[in-house]
Amino acid sequence: VVTSHGAFAQDQLNKLELKAENQRQYERTAEALKTINQVIAASPKRASAFYLRCLINEDLNDLKQALADYAKAIEYDPKHFDAYRQRAKLQVSLKEFDKGIQDFTKAIALNPNVKSCYGDRALSYECMKNYPKAIDDFTMAIERADATHDWYYTHRARCYENLKQDDKALKDYSHAIATKPGNYEAINGRAKMYLKMGKRDLALRDYDALVKVNPDDPDAHIRRGDLLFDKGQLQKALDAYNLAMEAELGDAPYIYDKRARVLRKLGKIDLAASDEK
User: Fold this and answer.
1) What is the tens place of the pLDDT at every residue in 230-259?
2) What does residue 107 show for φ and ψ, rounded to 5 degrees?
3) Interacting residues of 23 by C-beta distance below 8 A, sequence separation 6+
4) pLDDT per residue over 264-275, tens digit each?
């Protein structure tokens, strides 16, 4: 590869690097590593080669070597946006949230308009329970997004909820649902908020929607059954508890207890006694 003709050598390096990238894309990972090592051997300060080797080593689950290669890529190209961003993601996956946040911050400084960096940094802050900073970053992501991303709103709602800012949380859950009507997390979050705020009819409406989105969620059926029982709609409550029983994989004494309560109200004493037993 290395010849007296610099341009020719560079052309060959580019071709080898592209070959390694294609090998990685087609999951020929060991071959990709061998190819990119040839590039690095010929050009030991080539940041793009070290960055590609980072990704290959992540594929191979050699995370220690991947982190070392990210450091090299950044050393040889201090403005390597992708290296900062990808290293941040790796550090977060290793629960090194402080280090991940530092790298996301450097990536943002290099390219302030990439919304995903704000969203990813926000998730890190959320994991660290630094909810005010998480909210700031989710807001930055929302402001920069070309299209509305429902999960930004869902996560920001949770942060507001943890800060006891219920009205803002409720508004964000509603935004998420308006963006994606089948968003389970948002519907579930809003339903719980309605319960907390004493808006039981609105909570029931959300639980009606929730069991359509995920019929296998026993908790949603149980909460729906509780609300229907309180409204005196006993047969509907019984149906809800029966669905909860079908969805529950293990023994669920608390569902038997709830169902027994309904059966007694309906005058089905023997069935109630069986459930209580």
Assistant:
1) 999 999 999 999 999 988 766 678 899 999
2) -65, -40
3) 29, 31, 32, 35
4) 999 999 999 999
What share of the chain in percent tops pLDDT 70? 95
Q: Which residues contact 33 (CB under 8 A, 6 or more apart)?
A: 20, 53, 56, 57, 60
Give the Cα separation of 244 and 262 in Å (integer): 14
Give buried/exposed letters for 242-254 (b at 16+ CB in 10 A, else e).
ebbbebbeeebee
The pLDDT of residue 238 is 96
95 contact partners, CB below 8 Å, separation of at least 6: 127
Determine the Cα–Cα distance for residues 58 and 48; give it in Å rounded to an integer. 16
199 by DSSP, 3-state: which? coil
- Assign 6 a pLDDT band (cuts: 50, 70, 90): very low
Q: Which long-range contacts (CB under 8 A, 24 or more apart) does 160-169 make?
A: 160/131, 160/135, 161/189, 161/193, 162/129, 162/131, 163/131, 163/132, 163/135, 166/193, 166/196, 166/197, 169/193
Neighbouring CB atoms inside 10 A of 95's CB total 10
Global pTM reads 0.86
- pLDDT of residue 105 exceeding 50, the answer is yes
Tokens of 85: 């961003």
Rounded alpha-carbon distances, angstroms, from residue 22 to 46, 182, 215, 232: 18, 37, 42, 64
